Amino acid sequence: MKGxxxxxxxxxxxxxxxxxxxxxxxRCGLHIHIxxxxxxxxxxxxxxxxxxxxxxxxxxxxxxxxxGNDYCQKxxxxxDILRYDKTGYKGDLNNRYQSVNMTAPERHGTIEIRLHQGTxxxxxxxxxxxxxxxxxxxxxxxxxxxxxxxxxx
Length: 153
Known about the structure:
Distance between the termini: 32 Å
Number of strands: 3
Number of helices: 5
Shape: globular
Order of helices and strands: HEHEHEHH
């Protein structure tokens, strides 16, 4: 799905959940999965490094309940990123409860972003999806060496 279709589907889903009286608590999280079947190991590494660099900014967009959460652990720069393999070696990245789940490519063919708090607000969800797709698409098209020490201004 692309563009407006994503927003329409998210709105339909949220309208349905809200009509059923679904209750969102601080124990809920919004996880998105971005297709990673066709990216290389280097591109997967680049996505991870982009999120490491952007994490201080992304954390300002999410609720405090998600920061330091056991099911959404903060990611950090690790030497293991240099040897990361989507279907093999994970090292320090072998933890599906990190805010950027790098075990998901092997299990689901996706990179899972676990940062956002639970919500049934279609606008928040759609905007979050768009932000993460922009980060992902930007990261896979960067030079790996540029992202090793990436820090936005």
